[in-house]
């Protein structure tokens, strides 16, 4: 074997990933687009079913209530996904429910004013209306930060080095939704994991095979099919008028901030997996603003959770190597359509959770590796960079794990004072791995020798993507449709 020369070992940094079959503005045939869109819809069902299945019974809701919440969440997910792909970042991202909102929602459920209500259905409705009111108020945070371009200004402090742990932990931080859930039913979880790896990496053009595999092991332990109506169109305020409480709203604001951070990392990952340039600052901020509108819709319709970018669907872009925007828009159509046809939607939603978790093991890993790929634009022979990257990754995993373990043992978070809103705020923030990583990485990256380390941090590469006109490709990827740029010019 001939000796490898040093120049043959190096791999120059690349703005866009190679090997994708379709990028953001290229589209498969309509038949393949529909099949792939259905695949994204099936994947989005996991979170849409898991969150209500956990929360609704605790609130006193029945199986009928649970099905209505699942349908409503899917309906709003479809609307929010269309809004984001048309007017937000325009990246091929599914906007779904977020686990970040679990802490403040559970706090509202445990509020003594609701816990003492004896009638389960009345307790469910009262709690739902309180969650709706908190979401409506808290949504203003992202709406203001996004449309005022404040988040675009904040992004000036981000560098490729600082974004590595944030994007990586968007994937790695969800490890507890992977094999830990697969292990609850290894009989179907492990075969699904093996099949998914085989089909996604070894067999080309098998976009519908995974769905067929999932149908063969379907169960209805959640009573979704039997409880679902044949036709039901969700509508705003169907649970009644929202109620408002300052403490509930303040705790929910922390979840909104966590959603903002996690979505920022997911948008940057999606841009690479769609073979696009990193979203310019004003495009990123615009997307956050529309996500705030999405959380407002979550509150108006009553979905029990706010909106964030679906990490698993971002990972699927890399797994099937198809980053087409149209595919995601078709998946949004499936969400809206099947949320109104209750029995059919419940049929697909009855796929066992371990099967979703098996797929997550791969897809979350892909998103995490995209975050690590940003290291190519930095100097990892710098002790400064090694310190920042290592510490932020470790603390981003370790601190949230401490908060989770503490909560399991004590039945409350480490922040446990007489001020419930304060507890909810801190516990929510530090439950999120990407948020902890952002705090640590951005602080260290902008304080430790930052003036003399711009090149090591990757800023020369990053700078041209900060503005819309900094790279000619931005216009192709991020220009608004219907000639709306005339009215909303890029800043």
UniProtKB/TrEMBL annotation:
Transmembrane feature ranges: 38-58, 91-110, 130-150, 157-175, 181-200, 327-349, 355-374, 386-403, 425-444
A cellular-component GO term for this protein: membrane
UniProt keyword annotations, A-Z: Membrane, Transmembrane, Transmembrane helix
Membrane topology designation: Multi-pass membrane protein
The keyword NAD is assigned to this record: no
Keyword Transmembrane: yes
Signal peptide region: none
Sample GO molecular function, one term: transmembrane transporter activity
Subcellular location: Membrane
Sequence similarity: Belongs to the nucleobase:cation symporter-2 (NCS2) (TC 2.A.40) family.
Stated name of the protein: Nucleobase-ascorbate transporter 2
Organism expressing this protein natively: Glycine max
Biological classification of the source: Eukaryota, Viridiplantae, Streptophyta, Embryophyta, Tracheophyta
């Amino acid at each position: 074997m001939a000796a490898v020369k040093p120049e043959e070992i190096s791999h120059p940094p690349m703005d866009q990933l190679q090997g994708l079959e379709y990028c953001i503005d290229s589209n498969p045939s309509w038949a393949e687009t529909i099949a792939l869109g259905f695949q994204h819809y099936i994947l989005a069902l996991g979170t849409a079913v898991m969150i209500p299945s956990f929360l609704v019974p605790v609130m006193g809701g029945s199986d009928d209530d649970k099905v209505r919440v699942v349908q409503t969440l899917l309906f709003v997910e479809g609307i929010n996904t269309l809004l984001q792909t048309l007017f937000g970042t325009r990246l091929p991202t599914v906007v779904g429910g977020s686990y970040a909102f679990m802490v403040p929602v559970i706090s509202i459920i445990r509020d003594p004013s609701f816990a003492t209500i004896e009638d389960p259905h009345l307790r469910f409705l009262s709690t739902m209306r309180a969650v709706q009111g908190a979401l409506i108020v808290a949504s203003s945070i992202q709406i203001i930060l996004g449309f005022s371009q404040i988040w675009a200004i904040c992004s000036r402090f981000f560098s490729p080095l600082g974004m590595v742990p944030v994007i990586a932990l968007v994937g790695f931080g969800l490890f507890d939704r992977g094999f830990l859930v697969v292990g609850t039913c290894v009989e179907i979880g492990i075969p699904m994991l093996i099949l998914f790896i085989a089909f996604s990496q070894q067999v080309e053009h098998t976009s519908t095979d995974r769905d067929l595999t999932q149908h063969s092991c379907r169960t209805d332990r959640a009573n979704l099919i039997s409880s679902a109506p044949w036709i039901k169109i969700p509508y705003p305020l169907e649970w009644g008028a929202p109620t408002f409480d300052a403490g509930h709203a303040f705790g929910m604001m922390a979840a909104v901030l966590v959603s903002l951070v996690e979505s920022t990392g997911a948008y940057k990952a999606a841009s690479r997996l769609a073979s696009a340039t990193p979203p310019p600052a004003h495009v990123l901020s615009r997307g956050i603003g529309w996500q705030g509108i999405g959380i407002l819709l979550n509150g108006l319709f009553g979905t029990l959770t706010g909106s964030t970018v679906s990490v698993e669907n971002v990972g699927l872009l890399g797994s099937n190597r198809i980053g087409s925007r149209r595919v995601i828009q078709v998946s949004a159509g499936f969400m809206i359509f099947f949320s109104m046809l209750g029995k059919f939607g419940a049929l697909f939603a009855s796929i066992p959770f371990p099967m979703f978790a098996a797929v997550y093991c791969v897809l979350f890993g892909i998103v995490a590796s995209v975050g690590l790929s940003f290291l190519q634009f930095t100097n990892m022979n710098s002790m400064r960079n090694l310190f920042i990257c290592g510490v932020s990754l470790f603390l981003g995993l370790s601190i949230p794990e401490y908060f989770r373990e503490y909560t399991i043992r004590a039945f409350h978070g480490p922040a446990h004072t007489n001020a419930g809103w304060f507890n909810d705020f801190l516990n929510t923030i530090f439950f999120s791995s990407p948020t902890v990583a952002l705090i640590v990485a951005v602080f260290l990256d902008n304080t430790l020798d930052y003036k003399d380390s711009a090149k090591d941090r990757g800023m020369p590469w990053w700078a041209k993507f900060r503005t819309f006109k900094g790279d000619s490709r931005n216009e192709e990827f991020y220009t608004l449709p219907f000639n709306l740029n005339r009215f909303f010019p890029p800043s």
